[in-house]
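Dear colleagues,

As part of the handover before I leave the project, I'm documenting each prediction I ran so the next person doesn't have to rerun anything. This entry is a single chain, and its sequence is reproduced below.
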Amino acid sequence: MLNALLYLSVTSWANSLRARLRRLRQPKYLLGAAAGAAYFYFFVFGFAFRHQRPAAPGLNFLPAGGADFYAPFAAAGLFIIVLLGWIFGRDRAAISFTEAETAFLFPAPLSRHGLLHYKLLRSQLRILFSALLLTFLFRRGAFLGGSTLQHALGWWLILSTLNLHFLGASFLRERLFELGLTWGRRCALLVAGVLLLGGAWWLVARQSEVARDLVIGEEFSDYAGWWSRLLQLPPLGWVLAPFGWLVRPFLAADGRAFLLALGPALLLLVAHYLWVLRSAVGFEEASIELAARQAKLVAAYRKGSLHGGRAPKRKRPAPFPLAAAGWVPPAFLWKSLIALGPFYRLRNWLVTAAIIIALTGWLRRDPDHASYLTAIGVSALMLGGYLLLLAPVFMRRNVAVILDQMEMTKAYPVPGWQIIAGELLTPGVVVTFVEWLFLLAVVLATSRAPGGFNFGPVLAGGLGAAAGIALLIPPLIGLMLCIPLAMLLYFPGWTKPAGAQAGGMENMGQGIISMIGYVIVLLAALLPASAVGAGAFLITNWLAGRTAAIALTLLLISAGLIFELTAAIWWLGEKLDRFDLSQEMPR
């Protein structure tokens, strides 16, 4: 049966590749594939094989210590990953099969070991691709040494061993569960073991010479080297030793070091393989239930259900009273907020804002906390800008659901512009509130008041300008969210239905092209409003001063963006009213 399963896996992969190549005859997929290939060439593969320049002296703050220096940190990271797998793993030994695989393979004359070999064989395709991709993405060259092939084999060893460990751990948890060790007891034992290990390691570290070698004010590399030596102290070093064997081939600086480190890592991989085969338990029933549950979740997500088709445990209250008649867009918001759950309620946003105010106020009491405030402000500014560019991504799934429900949407006795406004309202409100929280953090963190909870400088300085910026955020986000709707109505062939499988280089390329379009539209929307605001600023600054000029400029830019958003909603509504299902729906 192994040859038949190998034939099935290879044939399925070849047919999938053939189908993807065949659909490149369609321009929408060909253009996306070209964009995806260009991205991989210039930013992944080309970067990996390009001659790497030596790092600037100011940026070379990590020492080239090789495996002896970095192995303890990598081993500690793998230990945390494995520990979390044991804590949050299922009690039942359920292997992830699809419904088609359970229906085809489980009734077949195939042993349990045969099913395991089939699953391991299929997982190797994913592991090999992941190892190659990680090799090209994290190619360090002169930083650690070693060739590209060594790094790829190192990633393969790490991913394959982890895959086998999680599989064997699921079998062992099944046996422990049958003996009465439930999830709560298992977590209690693991936490107790970690605390005992940490306490013993701390007692040993306090008495060691390594702990006394740290000098305050040393370079970062020296401080990291001190931690590297500290992690190797027993008993923590003994626990991390197998994880260190696993990462040393990846960290090897040359071929000789790689061959010396390869033996222990391969022995660890073979030991995990034998452990999986010898500890296999009855996983068929739990795997069938898991496959059915995963299929139900996928079907629910494709239909636009945010909670995966699971019914809420209790009745959810309405977010606000909704009148029986009136303007239609608030009804879309009312329905979507109920579907999102109680987390997206006004009180939660207010509580988060209060936490930000209290935290930044407490940090401003001590001048030594200035670096923390700077980190908070810079992080919030970067996340806010990143969210602004990603705002249309939150609309793409809604657009897929709208595409599937277009026949029902067209039947609404409502003007098209109200439907467009209603579809924009929920993502626009959610993203706007998040952006306002980031803006609040930026203002409070960058307007320091070292004398205590003194918000005077904040109110006199940044808060006035921040209020004007806050007015710009809702219409700007609304314009960004209009882009996916415009792509649906004008280029429906590029919009994938909610039930379609999204994958492959061509789909990634379409996402890249869409992101470039988002940036272009963002700049095009800001240009006319900013031009009017700049002219008003120059005139008002000359006549009435800078404060009045800033206030008037922000108001004019906000008014311009609101006008553009209103025009976009009306324009898309007219297009929705004229949308011909028989001619424009993708086939």
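Residues 66-295 form one domain. The chain has two domains: 66-295, 329-500+528-584.

All the best with the project,
I.
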